[in-house]
Structures are given as structure tokens and as C-alpha cells.
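Quick question: what would this complex look like in 3D?
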Amino acid sequence: DAKTTQPNSMESNEEEPVHLPCNHSTISGTDYIHWYRQLPSQGPEYVIHGLTSNVNNRMASLAIAEDRKSSTLILHRATLRDAAVYYCILTLGNAGNMLTFGGGTRLMVKP
Amino acid sequence: GAVVSQHPSWVICKSGTSVKIECRSLDFQATTMFWYRQFPKQSLMLMATSNEGSKATYEQGVEKDKFLINHASLTLSTLTVTSAHPEDSSFYICSARDPGQAEDTQYFGPGTRLTVL
């Protein structure tokens, strides 16, 4: 499986944008980039995913580098409820493909 | 979005007893469900892949006779921890793929916290 590298933790101020980086230098052409987040004592929650183009949804934006070796999850306006562990995961896009969770980035949001 | 439920949300049991955890996809049919385990301050570790109507596929190091998985219908998978011991205490999380949704997107249950005394 292609591996991802994320910072262990990041801090943000409430109502400011947050950019969460992920490096995936060994990504292959068919790997999708998925982001999930896990709030304390809860199961992970799907955030966003993409292949080559930048993606936007109601939760966040995903900016993918042109060479696809890195990506950035963007929370446009952090709230206290966004404090969570954010996981960047690569998948092959095949039916039934499993997710391999790394350490993720623990985002702390200060009021 | 797709919803996955788990029951119970927490359970405390005595050492040597068996515990069953249910995972249900509420608004979609899931041919594939996954079971994860998460110890405190660690990441999720995949235990097994549960396929409807067939045997589960277990990850290396996970004892299939200890962690029994049954996926009898397209909306229900169960994990039974047999003869539980204190070292089995953990946060167990299931997920399911919605075949009608995007590539490999999985929807997770809220988790079940198991404490074995």
C-alpha cells in the first residue's frame, strides 16, 4: 500500500482557515486520496476524497498537487467541533478495498 | 449520507464470557463490512473484512476462532468476541461500503467500547 505522511498535530484558532498537509510521494496513478476524521470516542467520519482535481464539499476542500505527491485538506473556518484526528488515506478505488489508517494529524482548535 | 449503527455502544463483561457486537447499515445494503479495533491513543487497526454470505477475511495476527464474524444479511454484520480477556478491552468500530457511493468511501459506526474485567 502506498504510504502517507502527516504531521502529528496542528493548532488552529477558531474561525480561521486550517490547512492540513499530507505527503504521499509513492502514490500510483490509480490511487484515490481520501480524508476521514475521528472525533473523540467516535467512529471515523468521511470528509472528502479526490483523484487529480481539487474537490469541494460542504465540509472542506481538497487541494491536490499537480504531481499528486501531496495534498492539503482545507477547513475554511475552523470551529471547536472540528477538533479531531484527521486521516489521509490512499485507496485503489476498487470495490471493497480496505482503508489503512496511519497516525493522522490531531487538530486542536483554540477559542 | 449513509448511516451505520452499532450496538451496544459500550459493554462491560467478566473475563471468560463472550460478547456480541452488531453493525447495521441503516439506509443502504452493504455487501462488504469491515471491523476495526482501536486501543487508547492509537490508530484504527483493521481486524477483518466481512462479506455477505461468505466467510470473513482476517488480517494477519487476528484469531478467527476468537473473533467470530457473521454477515448473514446485506444490512447486518456481527462480531463475537469469545472468551474475552482484559487484553481484549478496546474500542471496536465497524464500517460499510455503500455500493452506490464513491470509490472506496466507507461509512463508520459510532463504535463499541468493550471493557473486560
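Answer marked as accepted. Chain A is about 0% helix and 45% strand.
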